[in-house]
TrEMBL record:
This is Integration host factor subunit alpha. HAMAP family: IHF_alpha. Belongs to the bacterial histone-like protein family. Coiled coil: none annotated.
Length: 105
């Protein structure tokens, strides 16, 4: 599954090319958007990016887990986790791309 990793620098470069801001302004814009998303998620808010995905923080209760090496039961403490749910638009784009790639092979 070795694909290219999209980085902050890649996002900033894309903004630079498509919007026409300077490279510095593009990088600052990307940082501001990511910072705003992170701040909302840390505050426990749901972040919905229409046609992309929803990020949601949910609580997980304490449960009993097992050390796979020893088989010993250990408690897993309650915690908050972030979930990512892709939108139907994104899911359909992935499916269509997969179908096209499979058709070429």
């Amino acid at each position: 599954m070795g694909g290219k990793t999209l980085t902050r620098a890649d996002l900033a470069e894309s903004v630079y090319r498509k919007v026409g801001l300077s490279r510095t302004e593009s990088a600052q814009l990307v940082e501001m958007v990511l910072d705003e998303i992170c701040t909302a998620i840390v505050a426990g808010e749901t972040v919905k990016l229409s046609s992309f995905a929803t990020f949601h923080v949910r609580e997980k209760n304490e449960r009993i887990g097992r050390n796979p090496k020893t088989g010993q039961e250990v408690p897993i403490l309650p915690r908050k986790v972030m979930t990512f749910k892709a939108s139907n638009v994104l899911k359909n784009r992935i499916l269509e791309t997969h179908k096209k790639a499979k058709g070429k092979a």
